[in-house]
Amino acid sequence: MNTLTITTCPLCGGNHLERTLTCVDHYATGEVFHLCRCQDCGFLFTQDFPTEAEIGRYYETPDYISHSDTKKGAMNRIYHWVRHYMLKRKAKLVMRVTHRKDGRLLDIGTGTGYFADTMKRLGWQVEAVEKNASAREFAKAHFGLEVQPETALKDYTSGSFDVITLWHVLEHLEHLDETWETLNTLLTDKGMLLVAVPNCSSYDARKYGAYWAAYDVPRHLWHFTPSTIQQFASKHGFIMSERHPMPFDAFYVSMLSERYMNRSLPFLRGMLTGTVAWFSSLVHKERSSSMIYVFRKKSL
């Protein structure tokens, strides 16, 4: 298997890297992967992860909900309920931060197409890209969406979009710096970028350590905190204008984490931790299990 070994921090360029955690791919293969942290800036990432050409098999499970839309099991049914609620919140957020009710939107990593379909129904001109062929087929069959493979990103012209969204996608993308540059290029000068990612400085991440389900090695390559993602944005010409907690994520992630630890009553234990995490994020939103960040381009 071809893997990528990182010797220079993608964020600050430092080479003082230390191994901090050893995590297991509980979801698909049972393989072991290591997380490294940059001692200079604190950025955390998965080390020796499979290259883009190799990583596909780590998604090849009928239980991978972003691609299969499975409703098997209580946790996945909860996921669907929360997604229905969050689709409305995300749509309202897009319209509020852009001060518009329609426009040109690009959803990167659209999965099975639920958000893209929501925005299209609201009158937006929507383009969507997704790497997984099965997920693209689902979006076509259920929503009539013509979702493009990720290679289509290079075909869009500069300034094509008023909004670009990545909902739990950025952590999966191997070419991190190139992605940020592409986002800047494709947005209009007054365009808005909305990114949702797990927060590895959250209450539940600290509680579960190496068992925290949102590390999700090796599918998640990069592990952001509010500080490190803001630094990445600044590095590539963006300014953070807002950030919002996603407290529901703590429930789902905690349930999975409890199951990975083989603890009894993982559903109930996860609900308890999720509740504590919820209240923690009410006081300190930077401790939320996942965060939505809203960025605008820096003025020239």
TrEMBL record:
UniProt keyword list: Methyltransferase, Transferase
An MF annotation (GO) of this entry: methyltransferase activity
CDD domains: AdoMet_MTases
Domain of life: Bacteria
Pfam family membership, one: Methyltransf_23
InterPro entries the UniProt entry points to: SAM-dependent_MTases_sf
UniProt-listed GO biological process terms: methylation
Protein name: Class I SAM-dependent methyltransferase
Higher taxonomy: Bacteria, Pseudomonadati, Bacteroidota, Bacteroidia, Bacteroidales
